Structure formats: structure tokens, C-alpha cells
């Protein structure tokens, strides 16, 4: 568990860990220099917990990715169950994930769906996976060996729902901190997906709290650009996110190429994705000169990388 100014909800999370049907062997907590009562809550729980609680207080603020990297390395067990500071575990979370990994020795990690709750602990009317569109069709695609293709396209795996074999840290760690949205959980999931080493449990194994003060969560979706505004907005404003995506993908590929056991073949689609966004970012100002490179991307089927409604980015590239 990594903590930072999480006193408000922490006790409820800790109690849900203590109530597990299969008790954890230890709880390792790395606090990132909290300034509220977080450490006090941890110490109070440690005094009465039915298992060892080891509290490490960082000398300097590390940020969540480095802190999780450190915390996972300090654990002694063979299976590491990641934990946020403000959720509530289902009573059988530990048992279910341990059983899954025992039954699937080919997998280095497993994740699950989760209920969504608000700051008062009340359930919302949709589930965690609904935020990512991880529906039955995409689950079947994942199980058919295409997990990496799904993760190349977007976020699916939430760290708070993950259990990871510690031996995997040998090639997962250190987690990169220069890849923007690819924080610890996205990095773990993506690397393991390259060799089909991560599976999932469809049942919700925790209640994931959504509130204003959390570091990572689900805010409001961006409003789509209206058609009438497409002809008015500055071209640099349109190109900027495409250029940023191309640069991020390039950095991601370079990081993955350094990971032990990652084959170049597993990165083929990711490289195509990067080339597609690079081409889009470099389309000329003159609309007529855009036609040839845009059509080339269309013929290659790459506009589906940008949107399932591929004609929208294609027409946007030609006309905006």
C-alpha cells in the first residue's frame, strides 16, 4: 500500500484488509511524506492488526509510481496485492486472486472489475470496467491473445485491482516515470500483455472510491469538438494532441525495447500506431498536399487506430 494524505478513508480500507477470508502474510506501507494524520492511522492499525504491518516513511516525496516501485520491492511474499488508500476490498479478494494465480502459472498478474463508490461509500450505477469499455467482446479479444492490442489503444487495468507475482519485478522494475499516463499499473499491464502474462477476474473484488482529492481517477469526459467549431479552431490546437501522442508512443516503444524478454515482433502494432500518429502530426498546411499521405494511411487501415469512427479523423485531417 502506498499512502499520501489519505487519513480520511484509510481506516475503512485497512479494516477491509483485516477482514479477508484468507489473511495476508504482511502489509507493507510506504507513506510519501503525508502531512495529515495518515501515519497515525497506520500506526494505530498496526498495533492491533492480526498480521505484521511495516510502515516506511519516505524521506522525500517520490510520487506514486516510484513509491509503488519501492513498496513492491520491500515486500517478502511471492504474490503482491496492490492496494490504494481509499478503497474497500471484498472479503474474498485475497483468496480469489491467489487461487487464480495458482490455477494459471502462465500468468504473472491478474486484475478484476470493481464497484464504483462515491466519497460517502455509496455505489454508483455503473462499474469500473464500464469506464474503459471493457465489455464481453473485448474480454474475449483479450483472452484470444490480443491483450496488448487493447492496451495499445487505451487504459483498462487499474492498479488497485491487481495482484502480481514478485518474480516479475525482475523485468518490470524500475518503473519508468517519463511516460505520462503510463504510470506503474499501466506499465505493468502493458509489459505483461506483450507475452500474454496477465489475466482477469470478471467479478468485482473491491469497491473503488471516486472522489475529488484522489490522484488518479475518472473525471468528466472531454466534450467532443462540435462540427461548426472544427472550421474555426487553430490548426496547431488540433495538431498538438496528435503530436503529443506520437511523441509518447515513441518514448514508450524505446522503453519497452529495453525490457528483458520483450520480442520486437510484439511491438509491431505499437510501432504502426506511432507511425500513424506521426504521419497525422506532420500533414502539410496545404489541404491538397495532405490528400496523398492521408489516403495512404486510410488504405493501410490505420485510421481505425485513431477512432472506431475512422472517417471522422480522416475527414478532419483532410479538411481542418
Polypeptide structure, described:
The chain has 320 residues and is α/β, with parallel strands linked by helices. It has two domains: 2-209, Alpha-Beta Complex (Spore Coat Polysaccharide Biosynthesis Protein SpsA, Chain A); 227-319, no CATH class. Helix content is 45%, strand content 14%. The protein is built from 13 helices and nine strands. Strands 4, 5, 6, 7, 8 and 9 form a six-stranded mixed sheet that branches. Strands 1-2-3 form a three-stranded parallel sheet, sandwiched between helices. The longest helix has 23 residues, at 235-257. The protein is elongated and about 70 Å long.
**Rg:** 22 Å
Tell how many strands the DSSP assignment holds. Answer: 9
Query: What is the residue-mean pLDDT, rounded to a whole number?
Result: 92
CATH class of the largest domain: Alpha Beta
CATH architecture of the largest domain: Alpha-Beta Complex
Number of helices: 13
Structural class: alpha/beta
Which helices and strands, and how do they pair?
Blueprint: E1 2-3, H1 7-18, E2 27-31, H2 38-48, E3 53-57, H3 64-74, E4 79-81, E5 88-89, H4 93-103, E6 109-117, E7 123-127, H5 136-153, E8 163-165, H6 169-172, H7 184-193, E9 198-209, H8 227-230, H9 235-257, H10 268-281, H11 287-299, H12 303-306, H13 311-319
Amino acid at each position: 500500500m502506498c499512502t499520501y494524505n489519505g487519513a480520511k478513508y484509510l481506516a475503512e480500507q485497512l479494516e477491509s484488509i483485516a477482514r479477508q477470508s484468507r489473511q495476508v502474510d504482511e502489509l507493507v506501507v510506504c507513506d510519501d511524506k503525508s502531512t495529515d494524520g495518515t501515519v497515525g492511522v497506520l500506526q494505530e492499525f498496526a498495533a492491533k492488526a492480526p498480521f505484521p504491518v511495516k510502515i516506511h516513511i519516505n524521506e522525500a516525496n517520490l510520487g506514486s509510481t516510484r513509491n509503488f516501485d519501492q513498496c513492491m520491492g520491500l515486500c517478502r511474499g511471492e504474490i503482491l496485492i496492490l492496494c490504494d488508500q481509499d478503497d474497500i476490498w471484498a472479503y474474498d479478494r485475497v483468496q480469489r486472486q491467489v487461487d487464480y494465480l495458482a490455477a494459471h502459472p502462465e500468468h504473472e498478474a491478474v486484475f478484476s472489475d470493481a464497484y464504483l463508490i462515491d466519497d460517502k461509500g455509496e455505489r454508483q450505477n455503473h462499474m469500473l470496467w464500464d469506464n474503459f469499455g471493457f465489455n464481453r467482446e473485448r474480454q474475449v479479444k483479450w483472452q484470444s491473445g490480443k491483450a496488448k492490442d487493447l492496451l495499445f489503444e487505451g487504459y483498462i487495468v487499474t492498479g488497485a485491482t491487481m495482484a502480481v507475482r514478485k518474480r516479475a519485478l525482475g523485468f518490470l522494475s524500475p518503473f519508468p516515470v517519463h511516460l505520462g499516463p503510463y504510470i506503474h499499473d499501466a506499465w505493468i499491464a502493458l509489459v505483461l500483455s506483450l507475452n500474454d502474462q496477465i489475466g482477469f477476474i470478471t467479478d468485482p473484488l473491491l469497491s473503488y472510491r471516486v472522489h475529488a482529492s484522489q490522484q488518479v481517477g475518472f473525471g468528466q469526459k472531454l466534450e467532443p469538438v462540435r462540427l461548426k467549431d472544427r472550421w474555426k479552431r487553430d490548426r496547431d490546437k488540433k495538431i498538438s494532441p496528435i503530436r503529443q501522442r506520437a511523441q509518447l508512443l515513441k518514448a514508450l516503444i524505446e522503453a519497452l525495447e529495453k525490457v528483458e524478454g520483450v520480442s520486437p515482433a510484439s511491438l509491431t502494432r505499437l510501432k504502426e500506431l506511432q507511425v500513424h500518429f506521426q504521419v497525422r502530426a506532420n500533414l502539410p498546411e496545404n489541404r491538397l498536399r495532405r490528400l496523398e499521405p492521408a489516403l495512404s494511411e486510410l488504405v493501410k487501415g490505420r485510421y481505425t487506430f485513431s477512432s472506431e469512427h475512422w472517417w471522422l479523423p480522416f475527414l478532419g485531417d483532410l479538411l481542418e
